[in-house]
Design goal:
Elements: H1 2-27, H2 31-52, H3 63-73, H4 81-86, H5 105-108, H6 111-131, E1 133-134, E2 139-140
Antiparallel strand pairs: 1-2
Length: about 140
Amino acid sequence: MKNKTSEAKRWLSQALQDLDDAKFNLSGKRYNVACFLAQQSVEKALKAYLFMKGAEEVWGYSTAELCKDAKNFDPEFSIIESNASSLDKYYIPTRYPNVLPGGIPSQAFDEEDAKRAISLAEKVIGFIKSKWIDKSSKAPI
């Protein structure tokens, strides 16, 4: 189990770094990147939770689908399911111009989009952290 716990901590560490990077990009007015990194932070935090719970393989990029997987371990994940699902809209359109009807991602997303994405990510990650107990110290991370 130590390997899975170690892997889970690596994923959570990167999730927290991605959230910090989202905030940095918000301050630099790189709103599409901030939105994307908010989605990435939740994707990685959900994967960390799944690894922590002993999932053998964790696949996929959809925060909605990963949250559904987490509900198999803890039905309380339904509390944050809509927040996690909302972040999926920032996965592809924030990066690829051919997904948008006109313009480019850096012009399509604004400060409010980035603030909303970061707020959603903070809620989901806060919830995940509340579920995380370090088995060696019996303390939340």
